[in-house]
């Protein structure tokens, strides 16, 4: 009996094994005969294609933008705290401008404001050059002479190193519409635009800029909105009289004398500093261009065929540059000493600044 039962158990185990093997074999044969597309499995071609290197579509090249040379000078009577705040605000604006852009800042040697200015420039993230000069020669002289000298330092640096681009004199307290820099880059000769000056101390708003006819500059105007007076200056070659927008005829003045142009309201191609006959003749006669800023002013007023307005119609409704003439805060002596102690900078720290004859590559 025991032998028969053992035989039956073995037969049952073998039967189950044969059934399982048959089912697995049949399932494998069925899976092999069914096309891969019917099962949704990836084909060999698809799997191989996923490992092939793909070539990305060629992106269009970026436009070759002209270099913007933004020149900022420090007022001799401006304290370090105000200058640091103004440069930080202006730097945040310039950081939003498409490169290439080079910010040239000029300051006096051995001044507290200069140390603070360099500290602010390093934190803006904008490519800059800081130029210095000796301020001892301007003791007792008008502040305007020192400001013009700073501009000459910047222009001499641009001329010496042949920095190609569009030059713009930006005030540290200026406010910009970013579209202004896009139009400034289109300058091929000389450009001019209207400026709005807001004075909180005098409670006045003043507009000054060029008058245009089909983007051609025909004269200059200065309008005081607080007194509703307008003064216009016609170019000597212009045969048309400039009409001032004012309802009171007694408040309209027109003359042909040389206009007083705000230097922040004009820009020009830097190549004119070494290609223009005006500058070449001056260099040959004197050996050095010591008063470049005066030649720039003459170039703006005399070279009428090279001037264009920004925007093209010089519209007052599209003012893209504002100058804020804010009152200056002069802290007390004890307050100033406390602020200097709390400042992270040392006032007497020597800050390395770039000299006029240093060369630094400009990335385009």
UniProtKB/TrEMBL annotation:
> What EC class does the entry list?
transferase
Gene Ontology cellular component list: Golgi membrane
- EC number annotated for this UniProt entry: 2.4.-.-
The regions listed as transmembrane in this protein's record are 12-34
Write out the GO MF terms: galactosylgalactosylxylosylprotein 3-beta-glucuronosyltransferase activity; xylosyltransferase activity
Q: Which Pfam families match?
A: Glyco_transf_43
State where composition is biased (Low complexity).
223-241
Name the major location. Golgi
Asked if the Swiss-Prot or TrEMBL record annotates the protein with the keyword NAD, the reply is no
Q: Does the keyword NADP apply?
A: no
Q: Enumerate the residues marked as the site Interaction with galactose moiety of substrate glycoprotein.
A: 208
Sequence ranges of Polar residues compositional bias:
242-257
Q: What are the UniProt keywords, alphabetically? A: Cell wall biogenesis/degradation, Glycoprotein, Glycosyltransferase, Golgi apparatus, Membrane, Signal-anchor, Transferase, Transmembrane, Transmembrane helix
Q: Can you cite a GO biological process for this protein? A: plant-type secondary cell wall biogenesis
So which residues are the signal peptide here? Answer: none
For membrane topology, the record states: Single-pass type II membrane protein
The record's region (Disordered) falls at: 223-263, 333-364
The record's subcellular locations are: Golgi apparatus membrane
Tell me the domain of life.
Answer: Eukaryota
Family note: Belongs to the glycosyltransferase 43 family.
Function per UniProt: Involved in the synthesis of glucuronoxylan hemicellulose in secondary cell walls.
Q: What is this protein's name? A: Glycosyltransferases
- Supply the source organism's classification: Eukaryota, Viridiplantae, Streptophyta, Embryophyta, Tracheophyta
